[in-house]
Automatic annotation (TrEMBL):
Pfam families, A to Z: Cupin_2
Protein name (record): Cupin domain-containing protein
Domain of life (superkingdom): Bacteria
SUPFAM superfamilies on file: RmlC-like cupins (SSF51182)
Any one GO molecular-function label of the UniProt entry: metal ion binding
Record's keyword terms, sorted: Metal-binding
Domain Cupin type-2 residues, every copy: 69-132
Organism in which the protein naturally occurs: Oceaniradius stylonematis
């Protein structure tokens, strides 16, 4: 691998290209300041304006959401896994048909494997611009977003119409649905009954892992975060490990699967096939199978990162309840 080839597999935090019109709530007050980022794979954006940094998918997608204080992402659901960890800020995640079934507050480094089949939303409750990083199951990220009916209705009142094809049309710009294309239908009352309303006590213990707990678990070896034998037991089509300076895998490990490295704290020296670089918090690096890879903290002090690897399990996630 040449230095140029390695650079092409790294998306730097400072190079992230935001999209402010990615989803149906882009004009809705309270959600109209959010920025969405598609880092690896096509993601679930509904806008042709969404920039994709690395198009090849390793069996899952990587994205991010950046939001100023008090900005929220509207209630939606996915057919496959949606996992978030907090890179910057303080975030409230809430769920249920109206967002009132339960909630949890996540701090920097915390991770949430949101159960499939429930409506979920999130908001930045910190005092500064915040960023959460996302892992979405499957190469096609589950075929898109399923919105709570009130989200579609609110969006229409503010000029955005979602077509049955999954593409957005902005009536404020004079756009209209093409001939023969209908608006996305609202979920019926019968369909809505199939979406669970789990309480926080049924979600938090099995779906949330705290940063400082993982720091303690990773004192001698990588902490298994998501997987059949992990803190959050699941088979969503990928597995997640948490690595600190005290649990670095042995040098020159040859990867047998796709591996994505996402630093949370500190600076990491990464060497792939003899080519060295430094990864910083917010960077995302996709290491291909068959590569000889080694990791080491580049500086003293706290250092941690999440490692995501594909598995042979079908894309999905555990349901709550």
């Amino acid at each position: 691998m040449t230095p140029q080839e390695l650079d092409a597999r790294i998306v730097r935090y400072g190079d992230l290209v935001p999209c402010k019109t990615a989803f149906i709530d882009a004009h809705t007050p309270g959600s109209d300041q959010k920025e969405n980022f598609t880092i690896i794979g096509g993601g679930v954006s509904e806008s042709p304006d969404q920039h994709v940094h690395i198009k090849d998918t390793p069996g899952f997608n990587i994205g991010a959401a950046g939001q100023p204080p008090k900005c929220r992402n509207s209630l939606h659901s996915h057919r496959t896994a949606e996992v978030f960890f907090v890179l910057k800020g303080r975030w409230r995640f809430f769920w249920g048909r109206w967002g009132t079934a339960g909630e949890v507050v996540l701090e920097e480094g915390d991770i949430f494997n949101i159960p499939t089949g429930i409506f979920r939303g999130f908001e930045n409750i910190g005092t500064d611009y915040g960023m959460i990083m996302a892992i979405l199951g499957g190469d096609d990220a589950g075929g898109g977003v399923i919105w709570a009916p009130q989200v579609i209705e609110d969006a229409r009142d503010h000029g955005l119409v979602l077509a049955e094809t999954g593409r957005l049309y902005d009536t404020k710009k004079g756009e209209a649905l093409p001939d023969g294309v209908s608006p996305m239908p609202l979920l019926t009352d019968e369909e809505l009954k199939t979406y669970p309303e789990p309480a926080a006590a049924d979600v938090i213990p099995g779906f949330v892992a705290r940063y400082w707990d993982l720091m303690a678990l990773a004192a001698g070896e990588p902490a298994r975060v998501i997987g059949p034998d992990a803190v959050l037991k699941d088979r969503p089509g990928f597995e997640v490990d948490f690595i600190t300076r005290g649990s670095i895998p042995e040098d020159a490990t040859t990867t047998d699967r796709h591996e994505v490295l996402m630093p949370v704290r500190g600076h990491w020296k990464l060497t792939v096939d003899g080519v060295a670089t430094v990864l910083n918090p917010g960077d995302t690096c996709a290491v291909p199978p068959g590569s000889a890879r080694s990791l080491a903290p580049a500086m003293t002090g706290e250092a941690s990162l999440y490692r995501i690897r594909n598995t042979d399990d079908p894309a999905g996630a555990t349901k709550a309840g």
